[in-house]
Amino acid sequence: MLTLACTPITLVSALSPGKPPHADTHGAGVARRYVPCTRTPCALLNDTPVSCFKRSRKVKSLSKVVIARLHTEKQFAVPEDLSKWNEMVSIFISKAGLSLPEAVADLDAYSKRKQTWPPDNLIEAPRGVVALRMLAEMATEAYAKGVPTAFLLFDGWTEELREKDPILWIRIQLGKRTGAERIVWLIDQLLADGVQTIEDRFLQQAIVDCGEQAVPALVAKIEALERSEHTSSAHLLHMELLIETLASFDSPLASQTLERLRLHPESSISEMALVYLGRRQRDERPCFVSWL
Length: 292
Known about the structure:
Blueprint: E1 9-11, E2 34-36, H1 41-44, H2 49-75, H3 82-95, H4 100-113, H5 127-144, H6 158-164, H7 166-175, H8 179-190, H9 198-209, H10 215-228, H11 233-246, H12 252-262, H13 267-281
Antiparallel strand pairs: 1-2
Helix pairs in contact: 2-3, 2-5, 3-5, 4-5, 5-7, 6-7, 8-9, 10-11, 11-13, 12-13
């Protein structure tokens, strides 16, 4: 299971109101700012009792999916063949109070809401989408235990998921790869475009979730970009995405690399390193996304 084990952080500038989600928010050496999130749930929802009531109902709905998974996994060991896997899926969906068509309908509605601005669905996904994300995690476990067809459930619409729900899409892609393959794939995906997207936050969090084994790969990619001698906006964006992700790790190699980049002859890169070193010294670590 992909886990999230960092302090809640509020993203201040990259998702500011009025800016479309696929806009390039980076200038040369301009870093996003993170501050610890200390507001109460009501404050996060404009301090209105009605909002808190709605959130309570939402939490109750999502908790039903979580409980359904716990009950299902308690009832079943990790399935070792397709028939057991199909039975496990059926029981999980039933206990969650859904059907697969209803979950897919939730996904389609969620995708449409994402086209509006500001996109309120960035914080909370509906119950059906959360259920599908959990099914992807369960499929990963089944796949690793010898059920090669565990992901057949998602066949036929996997590519659509990249736009509909990047979290679900990433989980499916990672589920079919080994740990080392996951790191390489995630970094390649992170650097695939020349503009920053919401999807980058999910990719960065997934890299962090891979643990310190991701650090050598991040450093190697940074060094490769340094050798390329490009100074385009896309090149600087890629450097910042890598440096920001690297700054989430406490390993000696990560610290040494950031210290070296602090003295980089390219001022934009040295400024990036200084910004993230400063945040580390203040113990401000980015929490890119919530995986639920």
